[in-house]
Amino acid sequence: MNARTTDGASPPPPPEPPSEPPRPRPGDRARDRKGAIAFMARNGVASNLLMIAMVMAGVVAFGTIVQEVFPESSLDTIQVSVDYPGATPAEIEQSIVQRVEEAVEAIEGVDKITATAREGKGTVNVELEEGTDISKALDEVKSEVDQIQTFPAEADEPDIREITTRSVVLRIALFGEIGERSLKETAFALEDQIAALPEVSYVETSSVRDYQIFVDVSQEQLRALDLSLPEVAGIVGQSSLDRSAGSLDTRNEEVRLRTVGQNYDQSDFEDIIVVSSGDGDLLRLGDIAEITDGFEDEDLIARFNDQPVAFVDVYRTSDERVLDVAASVKAFMANTYTPPDGVDYAVWDDQSQILDDRYRLLLRNAGFGLILVLIALTLFLDLRLAFWSAVGIGATFTGAVFILDAIGSSINMFSLFGFILALGLVVDDAVVVGENIYAERENGRTGVGAAIAGAQRVRTPVIFAVLTSMVSVLPVLATGGVIGKITQDVPLVVVAVLALSLVEALLVLPHHLSHLPAAGAHAGNAITRFFERVQGAVDRRFKAFVEGPLDTALHFSVKAPAVVISGATALLIVMASLVPAGIIKVSFFPDIEGDVVSASIEMPAGATVDRTARVTQRIREAADRTLER
Predict the structure, then answer these.
(1) Residues with Cβ within 8 Å of residue 85, at least 6 apart in sequence
(2) Tens digits of per-residue pLDDT, 575-605?
(3) Which of 386, 391, 434, 455 has CB atoms 3.0–4.6 Å from 377's, for a disulfide?
(4) For the residues of 98-155, what is the DSSP string, one character each?
């Protein structure tokens, strides 16, 4: 029999008993007391020391790690170049290139041989198979080329070297309407001053012609002295020597002998004795020949802002840091260097700017990423949880610099790209662990117990998620050839960052979150109360979305799986068809607009330098008109 009130209404239902937090299952406390996670969560000194060690190691490594625009590595290529002044490309191909190719083609480890013959010079590139000992191959190439006895007598000694990816940090253009010799000497003086800077070890002057001494003897003088031109050339060559003359053994020591008589300027050559008589009369080269101290006869015209120019190229070598080198040179040019009258200078082709821009992009992305993490975690979880998650992400990236330095890598364009790529991956670990610790607090646990339980609950999925991400980038390390050597820093950085993020999320973050108060506890701090009100408003709207549109969509998906599968398949087919249809382009490297426009002119064989200069002038005038528009 149901009891009713006097007015016939049913009595109100009895109030529900207050919900109790779930009781821990048997074995939870035992599991909480064991393991590395539990140990680090309880020992604040250990967890804080671990985080401080990551940060300090990264800071110290950042001050010493190599900085370069592109990773410097061997290209597994040996280059043999021979200068043959005055020879045509056909002559060089027959007398030099073909003979070098025949000499080196049988060397073990040679993969491909390419050659170039141009006026006055022949070049042969010997590409080696992957894994070949480059030092041994270089010695074998030198040995084989040295055995060639059929090079033309007028050809210079072969230049044999390993090709590397060494690049210029920046170029300083010295330009002005002054003489060629004065401009070159000004460039040499600047080269010496820059080379004296502590941060710089290698500087080179380019776009200038080499010095050369010209000796012109008339036929009348030769006939009068009963000499031939080869005889005079032999006398000049024998009078200008700087070579070893063996050694002399004495009772106490071995004395090394050397002929030191190399001539360098015009007066030295004028004093060379050509003919001597028995009574002491001497006929010197300056008496019978016209000697000119000038430049080699090479078709080279270099201009900057329509004025003659000489470039001083500053390189980064060994373990030098490209940004330090560039900053030192720029400071010297701005504060110390004073060019001579009639000469101006400009910094041209500053490669360090590319690396600096990538630095700024990384810092900008990292800043935006941390701000988004702080906002998201603060709105949905807890302000202090958001703070410690952001601190952990910063410590992870700082520690990764130490690992990068320890394995012999560097800060370059590709390693910075790896850091940018890893930004979107490391956040997940801290968010997942922090969210589960927050969930344990909502279930009634507090302090260390909530931190340990939350971290241990998700340790397996977090570990496998990190391992999966590592495996996805490791195949890049298997890329062979030059591309593999250049891009290997990308997976190395990603793996290092992911490994440290796992350590930080499971061994450091739980201790920092163990001091959070239990859910529902109200602090007296006005800032905390403000964020609690904001979180409450966000939480109500989020729950309304979850229990409304999202819940409806999930029910529909479960009840009509055929529609969902058909829609997903149709979408996949549409996406896959975009590539063969040409809507999405496919290229190994995308075409990116650069900052420099260059024009290359190929003139017909036999074209004079004056004609080439006139064509170049027309292109330069067209460029000037374009800039004016």
Answers:
(1) 120, 154, 156
(2) 989 888 888 887 766 677 777 788 888 888 7
(3) 386
(4) HHHHHHHTTSTTEEEEEEEEETTEEEEEEEEPTT--HHHHHHHHHHHHHT---S-TTS
Biggest CA–CA distance in the chain, Å, is 158
Residue 14: its H or E element: none
Structure confidence by residue, pLDDT tens digits, 52-77: 998 999 889 888 887 777 776 667 78
* Average pLDDT of the residues in 152-167: 78
- Only one residue has tokens 């004056």, namely 610
Contact 496, 65 (CB under 8 A): no
Q: Kindly report the average pLDDT of the chain as a whole number.
A: 80
Q: Pick from 473, 494, 521: which residue ends a domain?
A: 521
Question: Domain holding 173: CATH number?
Answer: 3.30.70.1320
Q: What average pLDDT does this structure show over 612-622?
A: 87
Determine the Cα–Cα distance for residues 196 and 559; give it in Å rounded to an integer: 78
Vertex 161, ends 155 and 167: CA angle to 5°?
115
Distance, in Å, from the CA atom of 536 to the CA atom of 531, rounded to the nearest integer, reads 8
**DSSP string spanning 174-230?**
EE-SS-HHHHHHHHHHHHHHHHTSTT--EEEEES-PPEEEEEEE-HHHHHHTT--HH
What token pair was written down for 599?
Answer: 């024009």
Give the pLDDT score at 388: 83
- 84, 49: one domain: no
Q: Please give the tally of structural domains in the chain.
A: 4
Q: What are the beta bridge partners of residue 317?
A: none
Task: Output the CA angle 24-30-36, nearest 5 degrees.
Answer: 115
Asked if residue 333 and residue 188 are part of one domain, the reply reads: yes
563 found inside a domain: no
Contact by Cβ (8 Å): 417, 358: yes
Q: Are 348 and 173 in contact (CB under 8 A)?
A: yes
> Average pLDDT for residues 353-367, to the nearest whole number?
80
Shared domain for 441 and 346, answered yes or no, is: no
* Euclidean distance between CA atoms 295 and 184, whole angstroms: 11
The torsion region of residue 519 among left (phi > 0), alpha (psi -120 to 50) and beta comes to beta
End-to-end CA gap in the chain: 99
Residue 603, number of CB atoms within 10 A of its CB: 12
Strand partners, 115: 124
User: What are 272's two structure tokens?
Assistant: 């060379």
In a domain, 606, yes or no: no
Decide: 318 and 180 in contact? Cβ < 8 Å.
no
